[in-house]
Amino acid sequence: QLEIQGKLYLAPLTTCGNLPFRRICKRFGADVTCGEMAVCTNLLQGQSSEWALLKRHHTEDIFGVQLEGAFPDTMTKCAELLNQTIEVDFVDINVGCPIDLVYKKGGGCALMTRTNKFEQIVRGMNAVLDVPLTVKIRTGVQEKMNVAHKIIPKIREWGASMVTLHGRSREQRYTRGADWDYIAECARIASPMPLLGNGDILSYEDADRAMQTGVSGIMIARQVLVGALIKPWLFTEIKEQRHWDISSSERFEILRDFTSYGLEHWGSDTQGVEKTRKFLLEWLSFLCRYIPVGLLDHLPQKINERPPYYLGRDYLETLLASQNVGDWVRI
């Protein structure tokens, strides 16, 4: 069993949830981390770029990997391979990915509509793994047609140790508010299997409200705007129950550390520098959406609020708020 009660889980974030970023989040108090979504067929073909997604840093004390696939044979074979070759605490199946490329091949969210395949995948992987198997799902495929409550008891029966529920359907993608009432209902149905809730958490108040719904823990992920990507110090805020008016220089230090971690992870040759720069720029496209606590008229910032243009309290704070790509390059 996975001991995860009340823990803060940094969701597997495609491209942005790389090892250097996870190191930053661990420092700020993330309890559980997970590698970026890895595609089973690519792993079985031995693609080194895909295997790199499964790398773990020694500070990641509770670490899992997330697999995506559409067929029981490849998913089971892949789970067996991982069981023999890497050290992880759990393996997660991605049944929440909404993108067409994955959905049309029958993977991600599509598995919620292919119950037989879904069952064979969970049972097959569970049989070959020595570590707990977890599953991440959405409320359903279509808006206003929730099916998670029907699937969750089956997932428990098939042998999964835990479910994470993102409170939106595939059609909603990352728009609209997450349905926490429905997440609460599903948490009751899932019991005694732990269920983690996911959606719209950008402050400790959001996290407290989420924990009161009866979930076993919360996952901090990418939403309309992105909790952990906008403010990786969110984990500290939740644990210390406060709003942190973090200074622009402290935020700049985080970027400096990310750069050092990036060069350590991807190498300091031309390729490593380019890769670190690419991921730093991508992260800056999220970080600029953060509004400093000291400038807010009302607390907390809501995840679906688009920040107005504002002048920071110093030049660096203004620069960090810029939505201009040229400014991100300058940073």
TrEMBL record:
Name the InterPro entries for this protein: Aldolase_TIM, DUS-like_FMN-bd, DUS_fam, tRNA_hU_synthase_CS
Give start and end of each DUS-like FMN-binding domain.
10-260
Q: Which UniProt keywords apply?
A: Flavoprotein, FMN, Metal-binding, mRNA processing, NAD, NADP, Nucleotide-binding, Oxidoreductase, Repeat, tRNA processing, Zinc, Zinc-finger
Kindly give the Pfam families that the UniProt entry links to this protein. Answer: Dus
Instruction: Output the GO biological process annotations, alphabetical, semicolon-separated.
Output: mRNA processing
Tell me which stretches of the chain form a coiled coil.
none
Q: What class of enzyme is it?
A: oxidoreductase
Q: Which cofactor does it need?
A: FMN
The residues that the entry says bind FMN are: 66, 136, 166, 221-222
EC number(s) of the enzyme? 1.3.1.89
Which molecular function terms from Gene Ontology are attached? flavin adenine dinucleotide binding; RNA binding; tRNA-dihydrouridine47 synthase activity; zinc ion binding
Name the family.
Belongs to the Dus family. Dus3 subfamily.
The name of this protein is: tRNA-dihydrouridine(47) synthase [NAD(P)(+)]
* Source organism (scientific name): Columbina picui (Picui ground-dove)
Q: Which gene encodes it?
A: Dus3l
